[in-house]
């Protein structure tokens, strides 16, 4: 259950990063509200998940999912550039998260 919460929290982290960009420095109301809601939910889920997980691998998974998700949304929906180097780098981030989790973490 804790890992499921980390995955959901990672999606909300993606949401808050994208909405932060869309808020245009907190000058647009609805993206700002969306950012705040996603941030609170993401941090809340992370906090609950940490009750049953080691902080290092859990935080790496949360930030890795958020990083990869944000980059993918940027490339697919926001018109950001796509390159082989970006795709390889995202793969390396996810490989690092998997590696940390295979290092003996339980829960």
Task: Give an overview in words.
- The protein starts with a helix and ends in a 6-residue tail after the last helix.
- The model has no long low-confidence stretch (mean pLDDT 94).
- By secondary structure, the chain is mainly alpha-helical.
- The radius of gyration is 15 Å and the shape is flat.
- The protein has helices spanning 2-22, 29-49, 55-77, 84-101.
- The chain crosses the membrane at residues 33-52, 59-78, 84-102.
- Belongs to the drug/metabolite transporter (DMT) superfamily. Small multidrug resistance (SMR) (TC 2.A.7.1) family.
Keywords:
107 residues; mainly alpha; 78% helix; transmembrane; cell membrane; Multidrug efflux SMR transporter; transmembrane helix; EmrE-like
